[in-house]
Structure formats: structure tokens, C-alpha cells
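User: Sequence recovery, please. Input:
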């Protein structure tokens, strides 16, 4: 028993030191080039698959770093077999977007290039912006303007625009097969045996800003990636022809959970895999080439539970491959937590911003009540900054909006 305690003490020390060093070095390295950290968790069954993926990169995209867009947030949820609801929020600087991302002001469907005309036209023609700027084929994806809504706030002086767009995708197979959804994110996998046109569940979130991007997705769909022969189960999924044998800047962890009450017997490629009970964990570093396929075979356990736990712990904590897997999961967890914190800050900022405009609309004819409400919101904004719920930049924008509304009331 004393030897076991000593073993776990050393193992935990190695784990934390190694994870911290790798996390720090990876974050610094990611600032120079786009290095993605991706974590896939797969639960296959004989008839379907449950699959989640989370990932991110610490480097901002060019359309963020050049100051054109401050942030973009997208959420998707499967409502029914023929309906994905999309919530879209973005904040951008029209004075930079116009010369850099619009081919010519003569291509705009309205008379002038003012931020006011942009807002009015986007609200009156709700499908126009996502089609023109973001190249969504609204007709092919079944996005009807009758079920699309746009809200647009703007500042004439700074040309800053906040735009909320809500719409429905009704042609789901077309959306996924043509480069959206699964085919866009689960890069490296050949999803031919997965019925993406018959999704039973789909959730997707992504946020872009100056700190990079973070995303998470989950889906459940009919699939033919697990077969049974007697008491043994075989999982197999091919790598896309575009990735086979090629390197990638992605550091990826693929966790495949075989049926309960089974134990992984073998997995391929063996050079990338760690085995733990009924779970096979493939670790692909940036230097590794993609294999031809990922294969796992499991069957009835041959060892006691205690033996399996002990050997699994030994693999994780006493081998370089185990350290690499732990470090990958640690980096991904750090990226995920940071992405969620950024998402929560942006959501809180939007609520505060909207509350300023709402107060102005409600009390524009009652100066005393307006000033009282503005004082309350100002105290809330200051408290949010002190408690680190909003950033300094968001704090400055909120105060500028407040001062602008106060000036309008005067």
C-alpha cells in the first residue's frame, strides 16, 4: 500500500509539471502560426454514433487582427429533422470593412455607403448580409427571409456596428454535404458511413475574437462504424483521401469509447494509441502524418478491474506517450475554459449594451428617470469591470455608448 501511495505522488508531480510546461510553450508557439488543438470523443454503437469535438487556436484570424471585425459568435441547434436554428452575432467597423472586404461601393444594393444605409437595408432585407458578406447560399440551404430576423445597432461617429441575425436552415443534407457543419469541422475523417442527412442531435458553438477562436460541437446520427463478431466489437473509420499520409499543424486527441463491459484488445495505428479499459485514445502530434484509418477491437475483459486500473495508470503516468496525451488534454482544457470565459464576457457585454439602448428608448422623454437608470447601469458596468466580467475594451465601448446617449438627451 505504501508503494502505491508513493507511486501516485510521483505520478501527480510529473503530470502537473509536464502539463504546465507544455501548455505554456504551446500557447506561446501558437501566437506565431495557427496551431489547432482538437479533442474528439466518440461513442459508437451498432446503429448510431454519438460524437463530440472541441477545439481552438490562440491566433486571431486576419479579418479580426486587421480591426475589421471585433467579434463573431455563432450558435446552431437542431430543432427537427429539417430545421437547424442559427443565432449569429457580430461586431465590426464599417469604415474598415467597406474598403477592405467590399469589392466596390457600386456593388452595394443601396444608394450610399453610409453605416445608416447599411443598417436599414440589412434589416429590410434580412438574408442579404449573410449571403453577400459570408457567402451563405441561402436558397440552396433553404434559408427563408420570412423566418430570418436582423437587429442592427450602429454609431455614426465611429462606424461601429452590432448586428444580430437569427435564421433557420431547412435543407440540412445540402448544408452538411456541401462543406458546412460536419464536413467542415471533422477534418481528417471520412464520414461516408455516417448518415449526416438524418441527424438526431446537433449542437454547435463558435466564437472568434482577438484571442483566437474556440468551438465545440456535438451530434448523434445513424452510422455503420461498429460491427460485432461473437463477443468482439470492431470500430473502424477511414481517413479522408485528402489527409491520408499527410502532415497537419493540428494536435489532435481522439478518444474512442467501445461498448461497456468490454476491453480493448488491439488498436491501429499502434504507435499513436493508449489503451485504458474499453477506451482507446489516439494522440496525433503536429509532426505525425495521418494514417489510412483508425481501428479498435474490443472484447470481454481478460483481467480483473484492479489489474486493468493499475496497468492503465502505469501507461498514462510512466510513459512518454501517456505524458503527451495528458499534456494535449490539459492544453485543450485550458483553451476551452478560456474560450468559454471569452464567450461569457461577450454575452454579458451585449446585454449591457442593449440595456443602454433600451433605457434610451423607454425614457427618452423623461430626463430625470433616464439619468437615474443610466446611473444604475454605470455602476453595474464599473462593477463588471472590477470583477473581471468584461474587458477594458468592452468597458470603454460601453462608456462611449452611454456618453453618446446622454449627449442625445441633452
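Assistant: Recovered sequence (410 residues):
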Amino acid at each position: 500500500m505504501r508503494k502505491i501511495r508513493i507511486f501516485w505522488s510521483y505520478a501527480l508531480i510529473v503530470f502537473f509539471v509536464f502539463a504546465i510546461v507544455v501548455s505554456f510553450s504551446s500557447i506561446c508557439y501558437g501566437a506565431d502560426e495557427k496551431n489547432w488543438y482538437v479533442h474528439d470523443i466518440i461513442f459508437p454503437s451498432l446503429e448510431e454514433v454519438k460524437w463530440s469535438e472541441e477545439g481552438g487556436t490562440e491566433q486571431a484570424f486576419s479579418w479580426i487582427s486587421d480591426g475589421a471585425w471585433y467579434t463573431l459568435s455563432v450558435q446552431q441547434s437542431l430543432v427537427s429533422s429539417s430545421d437547424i436554428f442559427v443565432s449569429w452575432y457580430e461586431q465590426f467597423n464599417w469604415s474598415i470593412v467597406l474598403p477592405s472586404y467590399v469589392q466596390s461601393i457600386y456593388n452595394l444594393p443601396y444608394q450610399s455607403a453610409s453605416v445608416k444605409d447599411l443598417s436599414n437595408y440589412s434589416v429590410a432585407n434580412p438574408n442579404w448580409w449573410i449571403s453577400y458578406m459570408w457567402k451563405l447560399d441561402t436558397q440552396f440551404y433553404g434559408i427563408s427571409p420570412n423566418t430570418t430576423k436582423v437587429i442592427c445597432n450602429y454609431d455614426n461617429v465611429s462606424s461601429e456596428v452590432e448586428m444580430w441575425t437569427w435564421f433557420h436552415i431547412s435543407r440540412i443534407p445540402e448544408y452538411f454535404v456541401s462543406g458546412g457543419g460536419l464536413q467542415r469541422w471533422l477534418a481528417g475523417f471520412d464520414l461516408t458511413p455516417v448518415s449526416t442527412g438524418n441527424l438526431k442531435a446537433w449542437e454547435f458553438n463558435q466564437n472568434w475574437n482577438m484571442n483566437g477562436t474556440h468551438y465545440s460541437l456535438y451530434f448523434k446520427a445513424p452510422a455503420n462504424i461498429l460491427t460485432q463478431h461473437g463477443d468482439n466489437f470492431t470500430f473502424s473509420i477511414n481517413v479522408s483521401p485528402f489527409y491520408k499520409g499527410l502532415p497537419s499543424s493540428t494536435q489532435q486527441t481522439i478518444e474512442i469509447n467501445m461498448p461497456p463491459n468490454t476491453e480493448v484488445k488491439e488498436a491501429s495505428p499502434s504507435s499513436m494509441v493508449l489503451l485504458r479499459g474499453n477506451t482507446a485514445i489516439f494522440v496525433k502530434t503536429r509532426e505525425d502524418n495521418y494514417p489510412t484509418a483508425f481501428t479498435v477491437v474490443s472484447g470481454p475483459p481478460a483481467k480483473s478491474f484492479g489489474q486493468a486500473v493499475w496497468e492503465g495508470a502505469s501507461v498514462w503516468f510512466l510513459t512518454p506517450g501517456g505524458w503527451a496525451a495528458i499534456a494535449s488534454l490539459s492544453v485543450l482544457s485550458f483553451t476551452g475554459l478560456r474560450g468559454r470565459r471569452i464567450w461569457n464576457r461577450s454575452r454579458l457585454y451585449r446585454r449591457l449594451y442593449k440595456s443602454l439602448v433600451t433605457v434610451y428608448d423607454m425614457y427618452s422623454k423623461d430626463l430625470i428617470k433616464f439619468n437615474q437608470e443610466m446611473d444604475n447601469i454605470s455602476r453595474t458596468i464599473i462593477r463588471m469591470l472590477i470583477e473581471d466580467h468584461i474587458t477594458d475594451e468592452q468597458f470603454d465601448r460601453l462608456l462611449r455608448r452611454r456618453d453618446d446617449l446622454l449627449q442625445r438627451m441633452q
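The radius of gyration is 25 Å.
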